[in-house]
Amino acid sequence: MTTPPPFSTVIRAASRDRHTEAENSAFMGDLLGGRLGVEAFARYTEQLWFVYRALEEGGAALAGDPVAGPFLRPELLRLSALERDLDHLLAPGWRARATALPATARYAARITRLAATWPAGYVAHHYTRYLGDLSGGQLIRDTAEKTWGFRHKGDGVRFYVFEAIANPAAFKRDYRALLDDLPVGEAERGRVVDECGTAFALNTAVFADLAAVFPLPA
Ligand code: HEM
Question: Is the pTM of this model over 0.90?
Answer without folding.
Answer: yes
